[in-house]
Amino acid sequence: MRGATRNQTQGLCHANVMLSSSLKILQVNLNRSGPATESALQTAIELRADLIVVQEPWVIRDNTRSIAHQSFTQILPLSNGLRPRTLVYLSKAFRPLVSLATTSPKDPDLLVVDIQEGSTKIQLLNVYNKADQVREGLRTLDRCLLRRHLSSNTWDQLAQESPGADQLIEWLERHNLELLNSPGTGTFFRPNLARESVLDLSFATPPVANRIQDWQVLSDLGSDHNGILFSISGTNRVWVDNPAQPTNFNTRLANWEYFTTSLQSNKAQSENQLGVLEDNTLTIALLDMAASELTDAITRAAKASTLSIKSGARSKPWWNNDLKSLRKTII
């Protein structure tokens, strides 16, 4: 959720019904800096953030990803061949399902993400509001956002130059969006400025805004933009399993002899289903049933013979306290 009326970024969240799970979000413009990216990733580990919502990420030459981290996966906008200027890092320990929304446009400056738990969903819009990179079109607000209809469960991040501010204000009022920023709290600073500017804004529809907690600004991330950190409280019901995060097994420590024995035993118990593979009149339904039985047999054998790997936030092995101190000086 970033937003303002200059060259930067915006975030917006909307939902009719809230998730049962709480989530913590760090948003930051990283100014295409690799060191600032590493700093933000480590900060997210220390603060136990579930999502890092990034504008102006550092990306590799083919524009397919940013800096990798063992505790996060990356969600980028749909590619149109241009450098992505929005990105979301997702903690692998976060339980609800997070995915690129089907309504996310093929535009590097607008990334729409669905956060879903069971039948409940909220939507995140990550916007970098600037003229398109080939300079043939409008700014992101005009070409992508102002014509977009929002449901009541939306969270948005934005920043933009002052031209077109009236249109933005009209759009915000039409969707009943609430500004989350603390009045007067700056989000952007350079040594030649007399004081911090407010370039990065956060908006949310009322159901989400009512559950926002601890909105705050973080300095010393290594970018000329401060980070923004806040939490969205859930309804605290029982966790649901995320089908995108199946159990991982530590195969390096597996007891392969016991795995083989266990698999043969489980396979023997499933002979009725697996026996259909020898039938010459197979149907798709029978094949699916046999595949499911075989998968279950392998999973049971793996659980019996192999330790699982627990997902959790881990620092990179080379990160130390000296780097934590030095990151304050990398701007």
UniProtKB/TrEMBL annotation:
An MF annotation (GO) of this entry: catalytic activity
Pfam assignment, any one: Exo_endo_phos_2
SUPFAM superfamilies, A to Z: DNase I-like
Gene3D superfamilies per UniProt: Endonuclease/exonuclease/phosphatase (3.60.10.10)
Location of the Endonuclease/exonuclease/phosphatase domain: 152-228
Record InterPro entries: Endo/exonu/phosph_ase_sf, Endo/exonuclease/phosphatase
Protein name, as recorded: Endonuclease/exonuclease/phosphatase domain-containing protein
